[in-house]
Amino acid sequence: MASLSKSPLVQPGRVRVLKEGKKMPLGQGMGPVVYWMFRDQRVNDNWALMHAVDEANKANVPVAVAFNLFDRFLGARARQLGFMLRGLRQLQQELEATLQIPFFLFQGEAEETIPNFVEECRATLLVTDFSPLREIRRIKEEICKRVGNSASVHEVDAHNVVPVWVASQKLEYSAKTIRGKINKLLPEFLIDFPPQPCPSKTWEPTNHVIDWDTIIEDVLRKGSEVPEVKWCEPGEHAAMDVLMGTKNGFLTKRLKTYSTDRNNPLKPRGLSGLSPYLHFGKISAQRCALEARKLRTLSPQAVDSFLEELIVRRELADNYCFYQPQYGTLQGAWEWARKTLMDHALDKREHIYTKEQLEKAQTADLLWNASQLEMVHHGKMHGFMRMYWAKKILEWTTGPEEALSIAIYLNDKYEIDGRDPNGYVGCMWSICGVHDQGWQERPIFGKIRYMNYAGCKRKFDVDGYISYVKKLVGETKKRKAEKMLDEASKALPQ
Which residues form the Photolyase/cryptochrome alpha/beta domain (predicted)? Predict the structure, then answer.
């Protein structure tokens, strides 16, 4: 089990060996396989789970899934962690009911809990999800050091259609430079999933019990300043319903208007609504692409637009975070952008707002305030507005470093799909010109692309959007007040 087995179920290009374990002496039994799940939280269409079960079956050993709950990972609050944990509770039930694979939940530092579990059950293979984020990569390096010499560590990219290290071996400049590389590889990687194999050997009964109610309650209490949202149903079955549901599924009911409506903030139904599920791996991007491709003859423009966002743009973001270790900082920008931003860093600004003022939407720009309030109360800001929102932060802060820091802080705190390569790249594109080109020079922005209120007004009904957000916020506050009253009445003596 030290290296990839012959005739694998999962394409070899999708798997990287992070650590080679020592070969076991002849006659000595192999240990079980542990799959450390974190980015791809699903049972179905999961290449990492398939690889773990396939390797376990070839060695005739059992397999288990382990998950480590980080304490407020990268600023996640109740909104993000509640959604994640409710989905994981469903996942455990399905995993154990359909595949008889046990699910272990640990709390603490993954670089301690995962190697300890590997040692405790004497596993000889640890399978992990791929993530380009530096925090996860640092943890994996530490895990590789801490697991025993007999254990191998395999990383599987089940998140991207084309594995990030296969799509390109370098930092790509833009969508234009990576698009051809990805499209060339789609015939090899955008394939139908094989059936999920069942383990041939079951894990011995365990007394590991997960008190989901207590864990979720604790997370909601600690992160209560950013409460959960109601519009986003957790779990992978809900994800498939958003994609293919008979009532309001994206591909079944809303696809036709995608290419025309997705940039209009007044038409949120024009978007797919899949980003929270893709972020937490509740649904496979490959499954979304396969289902969309079946409908291309009916809506070619809409499907092509969707696949561009789903595959090329998402995988470009992973490429950037994977090959640029300084993503999320000014040092991660191209040289021309750093220079133009620093040349204009001291330009006079009409307004300077603090992080607290921006967080509370206390600016003179009603459109910007509406976008910030949409994110704070709804957990999702429209993609077009996110560009305008970030560029205004550059205009209203003391310099590009502060602007970038505030944009990422707010994005990660309030967006349900924050702490994601797409979010970091979105902020870097808006403020630092990443994956963009130089434009006509102007104060503050230099050669970074400029956006303003007048430009938004030409594209959509700005007053209509502001009214839409006011209504949204009012409804959210009303629900919150009703919930507080309900909880207060329950606390009264009966």
Answer: 31-164
d(CA 184, CA 178): 10
Mean pLDDT over the full length of the chain: 94
d(CA 162, CA 310): 12
> Given pLDDT bands bounded at 50, 70 and 90, which one contains residue 72?
low
What mean pLDDT do residues 295-315 have?
97
Give CA–CA dist 104/62, Å, rounded: 14
Element at 467 (helix H, strand E): helix 462-491
- The lowest-confidence range among 266-270, 366-370, 422-426 is 266-270
**Helical spans, DSSP H, in 344-420:** 355-359, 366-378, 383-396, 400-414
pLDDT at 1: 43
Any idea which fold 330-468 has? Answer: DNA Cyclobutane Dipyrimidine Photolyase, subunit A; domain 3 (1.10.579)
pLDDT over threshold 60, residue 27: no
> What is the average pLDDT across 343-349?
96
280 alpha-carbon distance from chain centroid: 5
| 192, burial (CB in 10 Å: exposed 0-12, middle 13-18, buried 19+) | exposed
Q: What is the DSSP string of 255-309?
A: GGGHHHHTT-TT-GGGS---HHHHHTTSS-HHHHHHHHHTTTTTSHHHHHHHHII
Residues in a beta bridge with 68 = 106
For residues 75 and 424, give the distance between their C-alpha atoms in angstroms, rounded to a whole number: 14
CA 89 to chain CA centroid, Å, is 19
The pLDDT-based confidence of 488 (bands split at 50, 70, 90) is low
Cα end-to-end distance, the chain, whole Å: 61
Inter-CA distances, 372 with 274, 368, 377, 382, Å: 21, 6, 9, 10
Distance CA 361, CA 189 (A): 44
Q: Where are the domains of the chain?
A: 15-159, 160-198+231-323, 330-468
Q: What angle do CA 11, 12, 16 make, to 5 degrees?
A: 130
For 160-198+231-323, give the CATH class: mainly alpha
Determine the pLDDT at residue 22: 85
- Please determine, looking at this structure, whether the domain spanning 15-159 carries the CATH number 3.40.50.620: yes
Beta strand ranges found along 94-210 (DSSP E): 103-107, 125-129, 152-156
Among 17-26, 123-132, 337-346, the minimum mean pLDDT is found in 17-26
With residue 69 as reference, give the H or E element that holds it. Answer: strand 63-69
Give the pLDDT confidence score for residue 483 in this predicted structure: 73
Long-range contacts of 407-411 (CB under 8 A, 24+ apart): 407/431, 408/328, 409/75, 409/355, 410/358, 410/359, 410/372, 410/375, 411/375, 411/386
Q: What is the mean pLDDT of residues 466-486?
A: 85
